[in-house]
Amino acid sequence: MNRVKKKSNGNLVLLKKKKSKKQHVPVESDNDSYDSMVDNGTDEDDDNDDDGEAYGAGRNGTAAADENDSMDSGLESGALVRAPKPSKKGSKALKRKVNDQEDEEAHRKRLKAMKELYKPPTVEELNRLKETENYYHSNLFRMQTEELLKEVRVSTKVGRFMQVWVEEFKDFLQTIEDGANDRWLHEQDYDGVQFPLQFAGLEHVEEVLGKERFRYMQQRHVRVIGGCDNLLRTSFGKPLVVDVLLVMPEKCLHKEDYLNLRYHAKRAHYLCTVAERLLQRSENEKIVSNVRFEPLKGDRLKPVLVMEPADERFARKVHFQLHVVADSSKFPKKRFLPHRNNVRPVLIGQNESVSAEEYEQFPTPHYNASILYDIRLVKNVELLESIIQSDSVREAIVLLKVWVRQRHFDRGRYGFDGALITFYIAQLLQSKRIYLNMSSYQIIRLFWNQLAGSSWDKEGISFDQSSRETLASFFRYYDVVFLDPLGTLNLTANLPVDLYRRVRHESALAIRLLDNSKINSFMALFLASYPSFAQYDHILTVNNSQLIVDTIESFAENVDKLDYFGDALALFTRMVERLIRKGLGARVSYLVPLAGTLNSTECLMTVKPRLVLGISLNGAEAFNLVDKGPEAIDAVASEAFRAFWHGKAELRRFKDGSITESCVWGEASHPIGQKRLIVRTIVLFLLQAHFDIPEQKIAYLAEQFEAAITPYPAQLVHETIEERSLAVIRTFDSLGRIMRDLDDLPLTINAILGTDPVFRYTDPDPPRPNARVVRSANGQMVFLSAKPVHATIQLEASGKWPADLEAIRRLKTAFYLRISDRIRSVREMDARPLAQAYNDYLDVFYEKYLFRFEIIHQREISILREYLSENKVTRLQRDNDESIALEMRATILPKLTGILHGLHQQYFSFGSVASIAKRWLYSQMIDPYLWPDECTELLLAALYLNQPLQPPIQPQTGFLRWLQFIASTDWSKEMIVVNLNDEIASATIDELEKQFFERRQTFPPLTIVTPCDGGKYGLFGRRAPTIEILNRVTLLAQAAVQLIETNFRTLQNKIQDFFTPSLEGYNVIIHLGTKIITRIGIRNSYEIGTYKKPGVSMQSAQKEPAAGLDPVRFYLQELREAYRQFAIFFYDPCGGERIAVLWRPQALEEKPFTTSNVNGRKFTADGTLQLNVDALLRDFEILGEGLVSRVERVQ
To answer: What GO CC terms are in its UniProt record (predicted)?
Structure first.
């Protein structure tokens, strides 16, 4: 039987015979191959090689197999013929058969897929399911973790480039010949490279280093260490930093080069030689585009060379960091024990007064650890590679590095970085606390658990289980002890003790967050970023570098000068830490040095020293008014106490009969705003008394943003909104008792519930006792008050309420009249309440406050929900805007108010933080109509309840944390769960999250779930904010966060910038008459952070309007009701003098001439309708006549 085979380069086919047994090949197969070209619209001549190969391989065997089977080929017979064309009838039949075959094939694939879907799980899958069930609260956390690991994993392309570049760098090192650099150590001139060590002004150093020479010796052997090592693979980041290790040849160093910075100088000269030669290479041979020096772990004595590759494709993806260290056998290890001295007093000018035998009286433990770290680096790297041999361990290290980086613990001088994490993981592996076969989740959980229960600052740890005596000997010189396997290097020699304690505390919070099954902890643990300015209550900054040098020269001890020689900032930080920690004692939880921000032109190696210190307050002790010292009978301790406090101490007798030395920092009658600043007062006093640093030279961030809500004019020094809110609440409670005791009412008053923000301590401008009562011309009583306080009255249950809505409202008015009469009858009080009934509410004047009460019956809400079904007979119920608004005032807001009031009692900064956040939104012309106040409060409550950080004590810190949260949250993927009092079950939250991700469009843009929603989850963001407003606020928050990060040192002078609105982008500005604007008790947005006199809206004490009368609010309400389809209106409700108008994009589009499009538009020449802007602006003026001064059209 003949077989047809296609040729790739012609229109002929080759007929082949087989000598063996005849095999009948179906004709359809040949026709199949022919017809396929017809169906594709091609000719047989158009076939290419690939088609022929594919075809030959797709038959009942390969083409090669066919040729091997046949001893007789078509070429031997010479039968070269053109294939006959099949008939059309056969072609159609063949097509049907082909389609049938395709259907059968698809059916077989579907069956196979179904079998795959329902086949029994493998052992690996069962183990995975069991592990997820046992260790994870949900499979979502596990999937998010795996996705994060994929995201940070180094790509294969980058890995290959890294290996190639390192080989090129090795070849480059061979081109630098021995003796390429031969000079005295104090000579610092290099071509195109600035020497990284700063010896200017240290004349003794130049004198000592001038006696030693450096000679470059070639070293061609380098290796990659750290997280980019092939055995560890735990690095990530953009750009990826690859650590390259080079061990200096022995001939570069002398046996005593560990003395007097000689090792550090030779190390720097070696790096400078490499950097200089790298830059001198020709363009064709260059392997780097730029080099610079950066301090290793913030240590200015130990620069590393950062090299950016010349390949532009990877210049921003990968940076190489060259470490140069001494050989481990070059120096004796005993020279670096903490009690030894390796910096001679001659460097500080004391050569004559100190003999060689007295050197040991000046130990240099931190200097010794700096050199020993380099010497032990190779051995310790080999140890880590031998211990860490599991992918799950590597994944755990990556996750922990992400956790640390998001909290900025790895920044600054010797932070808690990835190297320390890796060493601790290795120590836990060696001590059998964790095992290689554990999952990454188990390892990070055990890491946090072990770290939370550790005591590195008191007991210490080590790899070799060192004796307590050995660890105790190290504690004489270090605050934190973690010994390497040799037992001589303290890996945490320079780790700030309070940073360790802070990380330990955060580990405990992380465990608590993992154990909370009602929230998805992954976002808070690994994705959310927590900058330093949002973590500490107070931040102390000293920017004057000359002041730092002078303070060290005058007040530092010689032993500290030697130990921290060459690093003025480290020594000054140590001095200030010791002083402040001693003075503040239990008032602070943590005192952590922070990394300072740099300008674009500054370099870490050359920037002048400046101190940044973060202070976390201890809420239980920070506001104590008195520091008690020793008793008077202890003369020695009393003298030391008086000497430390420099005249501030005094002898006082207390109620318990004790007579002690004491320092008094305030009076019990002082407002909370002043008590919050006691710590600042103590710090400034100590720095002035001990180091002669004046207050003007110190930048202290503590309460600057609170200026936005500071009452003005203040009745008390540092008066805050807490005092004003508390005064309202006390008056309300007293009035509530009076009203609940009223008799002769048809229904007894069961409860009086506040719904106003003042009851939650979150009103930026709480009412003051300025309300008044006047008599009108007809003798009627009129209440004057800018801000009535809103509340609801709950009556006892009764079944006699009518079923008609209007009847219910008339009956409520009767209740208002009856309650008003009974209040007037109250006589037995000094301050008698006055009441006035209206159709919709009841006003009560009491102790110069005006309270507005409303009765809401549940039947009202039910009636508003009713609607007729399609049959026009059956009545059904569904929520609408009116019923939801009424339910909000009746049940939801009272419940929310009670819960948030309790939250403020637990975290007493909550109210002020919410007020600052609201004031910031108002200043950006985002009023409660565009962004409801309750949304701000609930987002803040989520921060206090869900975030793995210590709740802030200072309101400013809470506000900055809230800003960061708003700026960094992806609202399209994030559902905010505020599980107040844990009322929402875990199953409900899981189901809501599932619905949220599956049907995101059915949820509001800002989705907040609370137990107050009454089953209608997402209720608080249902009306507002819209997507546009949500994006606007997010962008504003991002700009504010960027302003903080770039102006951190001068932030206290830029507070006004945060509250000054930008009018760019608006189409119309409506200017209001200032004489009619309702007065406020705080500064308007343009005066926040300044010392200007208050605006017109705050000056007149006689400016109280009729109760609840706010002309601007009513004007805005009319504008939005009439023109919301054309424009969005923006306004600052705290005394704003402008209304900004933004046309909606769809309103500016030309519309066809129809009846529905006529309103607000004008007819154009081409027969379409366009927005009649001039007429609308005229409408704005007419509606605001007497209130609007002018309408400005922005070009």
So the answer is: chromosome; CURI complex; small-subunit processome; UTP-C complex
Rounded to 5 degrees, φ, ψ at 608 are: -70, 145
pLDDT in tens, 630-654: 998 899 999 999 999 988 999 999 8
DSSP β-ladder status, 834-837 and 842-846 = antiparallel
Please measure the distance between the N-terminal and C-terminal CA atoms of the chain and give it in whole angstroms. Answer: 86
Q: Residue 205 has what pLDDT?
A: 78
CATH code of the region 534-625+665-702: 3.30.70.3020
- Residue 5 binned pLDDT confidence (cut-offs 50, 70, 90): very low
Half-sphere exposure of 267 (CA within 13 A, CB side): 30
Q: Would you state the structure tokens that stand for residue 1036, as one six-digit string? A: 């504003």
User: What is the DSSP secondary-structure string of 525-588?
Assistant: III----GGGT-SEEEEE--HHHHHHHHHHH--HHHHHHTTT-HHHHHHHHHHHHHHHHHGGGE
What is the distance between the alpha carbons of residues 986 and 137, in angstroms, rounded to a whole number? 10
392-401, 466-475, 826-835: least confidently modelled range: 826-835
The region, left, alpha or beta by phi > 0 then psi within -120 to 50, assigned to residue 225 is beta
C-alpha 417/C-alpha 403 separation (Å) is 10
Helical (H) or strand (E) element with 376? none
Residue 331: in which H helix or E strand, if any?
A: none
Strand ranges in 960-1111 using DSSP code E only, listed in sequence order: 976-977, 1008-1009, 1068-1072
Name, in order, each residue with C-beta under 8 angstroms of 1015's C-beta and a sequence gap of 6 or more.
none
Task: Report yes or no: 709 and 916 within 8 Å, Cβ to Cβ.
Answer: yes
Determine the Cα–Cα distance for residues 1188 and 1070; give it in Å rounded to an integer.
Answer: 7
SS3 content of the chain, % helix, strand, coil (to 5): 45, 15, 40
| CB-based contact 909:958 (threshold 8 Å) | yes
Instruction: Classify domain 721-906 by CATH number.
Output: 3.30.460.10
pLDDT above 70 covers what percent of the chain? 86
Other residues' Cβ atoms within 10 Å of the Cβ of residue 512: 13
Exposed, middle or buried by CB within 10 Å (0-12, 13-18, 19+), for 282? exposed
Residue 336 has pLDDT above 80, yes or no: yes
Q: Into which CATH architecture does domain 359-530 fall?
A: Orthogonal Bundle (1.10)
Residue 921 banded pLDDT, cuts 50, 70, 90: very high
Extract the tokens encoding 26.
């179906």
Is-contact 470 350, C-beta < 8 A?
no
Determine how β-strand 213-215 pairs with β-strand 318-325.
Answer: unpaired
Q: Is the dihedral of CA 311, 317, 318, 319 positive or negative?
A: positive
- 1062 torsion bin: left (phi>0), alpha (psi -120 to 50), beta (else): beta
Say how far apart CA 178 and CA 268 lie, in whole Å: 17
The confidence band for 1048, taking pLDDT boundaries of 50, 70 and 90, is: confident
Do 477 and 365 form a contact (C-beta atoms < 8 A)? yes
Q: Give the separation between CA 1161 and CA 1182, rounded to whole angstroms.
A: 18
31 pLDDT band, cuts 50/70/90, is: very low
Single out the residue of 559, 564, 548, 673 nearest to residue 613, CA to CA. 548
Fold of the domain spanning 150-331: Beta Polymerase; domain 2 (3.30.460)
Q: Does 721-906 match 150-331 at the fold level?
A: yes
| Separation of alpha carbons 971 and 1007, rounded Å | 8
What CATH topology corresponds to 908-1061? Poly(a)-polymerase, middle domain (1.10.1410)
Reported CATH class of domain 1064-1091+1101-1193? alpha beta
Widest CA span in the chain: 131
The position carrying tokens 């013929």 is 81
Q: Where are the domains of the chain?
A: 150-331, 359-530, 534-625+665-702, 721-906, 908-1061, 1064-1091+1101-1193
